[in-house]
Design goal:
This is Tetratricopeptide repeat protein. Keywords: Membrane, Transmembrane, Transmembrane helix. It is a single chain. The protein has 594 residues and is α/β, with parallel strands linked by helices. The chain folds into three domains: 185 residues, no CATH class; 124 residues, Rossmann fold; 245 residues, Serine Threonine Protein Phosphatase 5, Tetratricopeptide repeat (Alpha Horseshoe), CATH 1.25.40. Helices cover 53% and strands 8% of the residues. The protein contains 27 helices and eight strands. The strands form two sheets. It has a five-stranded mixed β-sheet, covered by helices on one side. A three-stranded antiparallel β-sheet has the order 1-2-3. Helix 11 links the parallel strand 4 and strand 5.
């Protein structure tokens, strides 16, 4: 097989790892909008739905409304131009992971990979260095050092141009994994390219409509009708020193505003109060006070109060001049507030009496039960029955499906033979294609089959719509320890685990178990010891509780190995990851006498 074909076959992995590498740069850490746009283009390129349009970039990638007018607003073109400059800036300072840089051609909205001399040439570089997938596959038009591969072209396009399908290496991750249900062949296998294009366009339109209807924050109706709007958070930033836009304090203030806005907007639990709503009329007020001088900010003090002015949470986040460290601290504080088992959710739950009277109350109750490691199937059934049209329904269906999959695993039922779980999972996907919970399930099912490429795609979708939900992130990553992972990406994951362990004030039983499993999967002994120490005090209930008992107690581990393996199997679905975690437990126990 030609070298170019071998490299084309793993285009998805190369692009994903390179995008993750670039996103770690301060240029993107300081710009949530640019980061979001790059992730969107990465997903669109890998999924292979054709060239993203300017309208798609504006609405799906940048959050513009559906009635956006391309003729009156150049926002997407400006952002794409800025993204090109940002990428060039990054690559002027760092090397790509695998000698291939991410770049965007002028006039296009998809990602390519190419050597630095091709992607970011000097004035003397010739445009003819650029090469298409077809040119690489057939050795036409140009020189092999100028190879560049696009993941956006469809299989039909390649077939028409003569490139063998086995050389494409493109993912079809736009739909749930095929092993999840006995389904007919995909449309591309039974219809013409034209019909396929039409069907895909219709599917994208329906997905966009569903995404709007199933909006992230504001739910239909009011409290009296059983359908509840999420509580609103009013936030204000104050600086101890007057800050000009060009000062360090001004930069930090903008970073805080963007981060807090994005995180609350993406939350399941709360929404941002509209500008015309007074602070005293919001259910929660978030005060963000920057301390220090204009050129040397020192700390961010964060205070959350309820509508009775009762203080619910305080945190102080130091700033040492490094944005990455500061954002880690701010992210952990926002996790404490905004996760479905965090401060705001717990406060809303405490305000309820008896069984939940709203769909939002149902959602919070179910998530708190799950965070404690307890089954929530009965509560889910009741909530779906009482609120059949709730916008939380896709989440409930996904939760119920996950529990049924776990029950099936405990009984020895393969994932692809668990019809009840499959049906709920696909119903959730049909209702909300970007549902964080359904995409988490899709990622785990893909990993169980060893399909790391599609798992990464579903993982990105899950975390995009479920940002600030550490349990989902770690649930996926704990399974993906069996997948090839670039050193930089592995280091980032270890850092994320360490930060959650050290900084989170909302550790719960489920999260504690998953963090320990993920740490064992990495094989990093220092991380394993740290997370064991930080989670030792967390109360754990439910069938997975033997796992934490086994860590640090060799006698218990040796006498309960079958029970421990069964608990691991229900949470970790990839056989290699299961073996790695079990081996890690056994190795640790040998070194730690009872």
């Amino acid at each position: 097989m030609p070298q170019s074909a071998e490299r084309l076959a793993n285009f998805d992995e190369l692009l994903l790892s390179e995008v993750e590498h670039v996103l770690d740069d301060p240029v993107f850490e300081r710009s949530p909008t640019q980061s979001k746009l790059l992730k969107f283009l990465c997903d669109e390129t890998i999924i292979g739905r054709g060239k993203p349009s300017q309208f798609s970039v504006a609405v799906d990638g940048l959050g513009r409304p559906e009635d956006y007018d391309l003729n009156s607003d150049s926002y997407p073109r400006v952002q794409i131009s800025r993204l090109r400059r940002s990428l060039a800036n990054v690559y002027s300072r760092i090397d790509p992971l695998n000698e291939l840089c991410v770049f965007i051609r002028k006039g296009e909205y998809r990602l390519y990979l190419a050597p630095r001399t091709t992607a970011y040439p000097d004035e003397r570089a010739r445009r003819s260095d650029f090469r298409t997938p077809e040119q690489d596959a057939h050795g036409n038009d140009g020189n092999s050092t100028g190879a560049a591969w696009s993941g956006a072209a469809s299989r039909q396009d390649h077939a028409r141009n003569g490139a063998p399908p086995e050389l494409i290496g493109l993912s079809s991750g736009a739909a749930p994994p095929s092993n999840a249900i006995d389904a007919p062949p995909p449309a591309s296998a039974q219809s013409s390219p034209l019909r396929t294009g039409i069907l895909m366009a219709i599917a994208l339109l329906l997905a966009a409509i569903l995404a709007i209807v199933l909006g992230r924050n504001m739910l239909v109706g009011d409290r009296s009708g059983g359908m509840q709007k999420v509580p609103l958070v009013h936030f204000a930033i104050r600086a101890s020193a007057a800050a000009s836009p060009s000062s360090a304090m001004g930069d930090l203030e903008n970073l805080v505003r963007q981060t807090v806005t994005n995180r609350i907007s993406a939350s399941f639990i709360a929404g941002i109060a509209p500008p015309d709503l007074q602070a005293q009329d919001a259910q929660f007020n978030l005060g963000l006070n920057l301390q220090g001088t204009a050129q040397s900010p020192q700390t961010l003090d964060l205070v959350l109060t309820d509508d009775r002015n009762t203080t619910l949470y305080r945190a102080s986040i130091p700033y040492d001049g490094r944005s990455a460290n500061f954002l880690d601290g701010l992210g952990s504080a926002l996790d404490d507030l905004l996760t479905p088992y965090g401060i705001i959710a717990q406060h809303e739950l405490d305000m309820m009496s008896g069984k939940p009277q709203t769909d939002y109350g149902c959602f919070v109750t179910i998530e708190v039960l799950r965070s404690r490691g307890m089954p929530a199937s009965g509560q889910i059934d009741e909530c779906i029955k009482r609120f059949p049209n709730s916008e939380f329904k896709p989440y409930w269906l996904s939760r119920k499906s996950y529990e049924l999959y776990q029950e099936g695993i405990a009984k020895g039922i393969p994932l692809n033979k668990n019809a009840p779980a499959q049906a709920l999972y696909h119903e959730a996907f049909a209702l909300a294609p970007n549902n964080a919970f359904a995409n988490t399930l899709a990622a785990k099912i893909s990993i169980a089959d060893g399909d790391c490429t599609n798992a990464a795609i579903f993982s990105r979708r899950a975390l995009k719509s479920g940002e600030g939900f550490p349990t989902l992130r770690i649930l996926i990553r704990a399974d993906m320890t069996s997948c090839p992972m670039p050193a930089a990406q592995r280091a980032t994951f270890i850092t994320q685990l360490r930060n959650v362990a050290l900084r989170s004030n909302q550790l719960n039983g489920q999260l504690a178990i998953l963090m320990n499993l993920a740490a064992l999967g990495t094989g990093d002994r220092e991380l394993i010891r740290l997370i064991q120490s930080e989670t030792a005090h967390v109360p754990v209930e439910g069938p997975a509780s033997p796992l934490l008992k086994a860590i640090g107690n060799s006698a218990y581990f040796n006498s309960h190995q079958a029970e421990i393996r069964k608990a691991i199997d229900t949470l970790i679905w990839n056989p290699n990851s299961r073996d790695k975690i079990m081996k890690g437990l056994a190795t640790i126990e040998k070194r730690r006498p009872a």
